[in-house]
Each structure stands twice: as structure tokens, then as C-alpha cells.
Amino acid sequence: MLKLKVEGMTCGHCAQTVTKAVEAVPAVERAVVDLKAGEVAVEGNADEATVRRAIEDAGYDVRDAA
Fold first, then answer.
1. Which of 3, 6, 32, 49 has the fewest CB atoms within 10 Å, counting from its CB?
2. For 18-48, how does the pLDDT look when each residue is reduced to its tens digit (9 = 90+)?
3. Is 2 helix (H, G, I), strand (E, B) or coil?
4. Phi and psi for 25 in degrees, rounded to 5?
5. How confident is the model at residue 64 (pLDDT cuts 50, 70, 90)?
6. Which runs of consecutive H residues, i.e. helices, occur in 11-66?
7. Angle at 28 between CA 58 and CA 14, to 5 degrees
8. Where are the domains of the chain?
């Protein structure tokens, strides 16, 4: 499972936007956003760079999860 910090999410709409963007990436089985922690957990075999790019294209900054 891939976990990434997503900066800039402030509400449920933001979390929904990130979820949809990540789940549109090929080989992503499921994306679970934890708004409070500012993280997204990605299940599947998707390329990390592609997932990062999808989140950034949606308007958010991505960092490695601690």
C-alpha cells in the first residue's frame, strides 16, 4: 500500500477530489483519504509517480508520508 501526505486539503470536497483523481489512475484498486491526517492510502499496483502527478494535477501538493 502506498501512503502519501497531501497538503492543501481542507474539506470533504477536497478529499473527494483527491479520491476521484487517484482512483482514475490505472491499476489503483482503491484510494482512502484521511482528511484529518492529510493522507491518502492507495491500494493496487499503480505507479507512484503517476499517482503523485494525478494529485498534483488536481491542485494539491504531495509529500512522502512519515
1. 49
2. 999 999 999 999 999 999 999 999 999 999 9
3. strand
4. -75, 130
5. confident
6. 12-23, 48-57
7. 30
8. 2-64
Cell numbers for 8: 492543501
- Dist CA 21 CA 37 (whole Å): 18
| Of the candidates 18, 13, 53, the residue with the CA atom closest to the CA atom of residue 39 | 18
pTM above 0.85, yes or no: yes
CA 45 to chain centroid, in Å, comes to 14
Query: Which of 24, 28, 20 lies closest to 48 in space, CA to CA?
Result: 28
CATH number of this structure's domain 2-64, picked from the four choices 3.40.50.300, 2.60.34.10, 1.25.40.390, 3.30.70.100:
3.30.70.100
Q: Which three cell numbers stand for residue 29?
A: 484498486
